[in-house]
Amino acid sequence: MADEKANPEKALAALEESRRELESLTYTIAHDLRAPLRTIDGFARALSEDCGEKLDADGRRYLQHVLDSAQRMSGMLEGLLALGRIQRAELHPIRIDLSTIARGILQRLQAANPSRTVEVVIPDGIAAEGDATLLTTALDVLLQNAWKFTRGREAGRIEVGVEPTTPAAYFVRDNGTGFDMTHAGKLFGPFQRVHSEKEFEGVGIGLACAHRILRRHGGRIWADAAPDQGATFYFTLQASPEA
Fold first, then answer.
1. Interatomic CA distance for residues 83 and 80, integer angstroms
2. pLDDT tens-digit readout, 68-127
3. pTM, whole model, 2 decimals?
4. DSSP one-letter code for 219
5. CA distances in angstroms from 113 to 116, 118, 204, 205, listed in the order given
6. CB distance 213 to 138 below 8 Å
7. What are the sequence ranges of the domains in the chain?
8. Is domain 2-88 in CATH 1.10.287.130, yes or no?
9. At the top level of CATH, which class does the domain 93-235 belong to?
10. Hey, how many other C-beta atoms are within 10 angstroms of the C-beta on 112?
């Protein structure tokens, strides 16, 4: 302990090694749990299909709880694996056009939800330096959230932009349901939510993935919001992402 206090670089390296070991263990556990979970889900579905008519109302309800819980756990395991893949991915930084990427994501969301009316504001020429695949994933998370949380609006609005700060602060802004900033500390942790599952679907892994991607790029992510007044998510990038 005294040696670590005398050598903060050594202590930091040990902490980083512990973090990597924990992430590796989490990835392994999540991967190995998928097989028994598939077995539980498979037999529960077989029971429902083959014997469902023999069960009373309570029995069918209990079985449905098993199926729903298996699906939720499957989503959580896939989320943990996604976090692990992000951490393991080799970065290939290039110059990318975030304006084009954002428009493509929102066009896909609009095509899947043609009844929605959403005003999209994306200026040309929003550029960034980073891994194209991972930054597309991070932007996809932010835009899907904006799309989801504006669905209660008669006319939704989603804006993508960049503020000329140093470093540049990119942002995704919406006029959706927003949230209380007293819960902002929960936003970027795995499986943390500021809205209930009954209100909005999801297992609470998307923002954790975005946070990890931006951390790997030497940047950070934060939010500004208020209940029923929309939300803005900001993020920065470092010129030279980690290897």
1. 5
2. 888 878 877 877 787 888 888 889 999 999 999 999 999 999 999 999 999 999 999 999
3. 0.74
4. -
5. 6, 10, 22, 23
6. yes
7. 2-88, 93-235
8. yes
9. alpha beta
10. 9
